[in-house]
Input
Amino acid sequence: MSVFVVTDLAAGYQGHPVIDGLNLTVTEGEAVALAGRNGMGKTTALKAVMSLSVPRVSGGSVVFGHADLTRRKPYQVARAGIGYVPQGRRIFASLIVEEHLDVAARPAPTGYQAWTRDRVYALFPRLAERKQHKAGTLSGGEQQMLAIARALVTNPRLMLLDEPSEGLAPKIVRQVADIIKELPRAGVSVLIAEQDLAMVRRVADRVYFLDRGRVADEVTARELPDRGDLLDRYLGV
Ligand SMILES: Nc1ncnc2c1ncn2[C@@H]1O[C@H](COP(=O)(O)OP(=O)(O)OP(=O)(O)O)[C@@H](O)[C@H]1O
Ligand SMILES: [Mg+2]
Output
């Protein structure tokens, strides 16, 4: 069982703390949302987990399965089985779809079914149709699918997704959500940072509400319909 555990994580910029005392867990087969409004620290939290050069991590720990990933290098975090889909997608406009997958591909850990191109295209039929197209010509939804596909071919056991709904029409958000929802069933646990309620509702088995850099509340998907107060307070809907 590869449980992902973040304990008392603290991180910030130029000595200014943004995340402070962040605690969360993702168990195998789960999709968990880190929900919160603009500027609450969602991106900072995911970047701190990935050990990107900014923000600076000043305390706490990140453990995945038996591996302590606290302050390891980003490539070590990736190698430990954590995939990352950054906010804003970060695709390469002049590379074709297939090249994104070829450049990113990494071997699967022993015992796990690899995400080959064909397996990825089966999950994203739209990308299969457009595999020879330059990524810059894709729609926003297709670009988001490509960003997820690119993370999948690294064969992660846990995928961090940062606001995959951003800039997408509601209908497209639902399509992307339905794909993300498939991941835990396919052996990839999910931690998704979001402020889009439709995405959170559709994807998450459990929701952490992030408020000023720490988890202020936690609910299961089952409890969510009765907790409109939390949605008001932490997402402002
Ligand atoms: N590179 C940076 N340097 C300094 N401050 C930053 C930097 N990036 C983010 N911040 C600040 O950290 C705080 C949290 O930002 P963060 O991007 O983590 O929030 P977020 O929840 O992801 O918001 P959004 O929904 O807008 O993506 C904000 O006050 C932001 O201005
Ligand atoms: Mg963000």
Notes: The chain has one domain: 4-235. Residues 56 and 231 are 30 Å apart (CA to CA).
